[in-house]
Specification:
Order of helices and strands: EEEEEEEHH
CATH architecture of the largest domain: Roll
Strand content: 25-35%
Shape: elongated
Helix content: 10-25%
Structural class: alpha+beta
């Protein structure tokens, strides 16, 4: 296959998926725009801009759904929690992070 070959790909409903199409990943309802399509021995794959991941086209659905912005969303990690607890402990003086975590029910 050469780079200029146009790949025909179809979503779960048999609708043609083209670069620029808005699609929804059916497992998580993530919506994004297709920026690339490729084929390998496992099938056709579409690159979705929202996640910058390739999805098997059989798990995508062409949609008119709006793309939701992640404005202000931040998912805290364990490191974020530990840093927060350490700052709180430092502010309280003598307590250690472990003491704060155990007294607040943190893990």
């Amino acid at each position: 296959m050469n780079d200029s070959e146009i790949i025909e790909a179809y979503d779960i409903n048999g609708t043609v998926i083209e670069i620029g199409a808005r699609v929804k990943y059916i497992n998580t309802d993530t919506v994004g725009v297709v920026t690339d399509i490729k084929r390998d021995s496992d099938g056709e794959w579409a690159l979705v801009d929202k996640t910058d991941l390739y999805y098997n086209v059989n798990a995508l659905e062409v949609t008119d759904a709006e793309i939701k912005a992640d404005i202000g969303e931040h998912k805290a990690t364990a490191t974020d929690a530990a840093q927060y607890l350490k700052k709180q402990a430092d502010a309280m003086g003598a307590q250690k992070v472990e003491d704060v975590a155990s007294s607040t029910g943190g893990g």
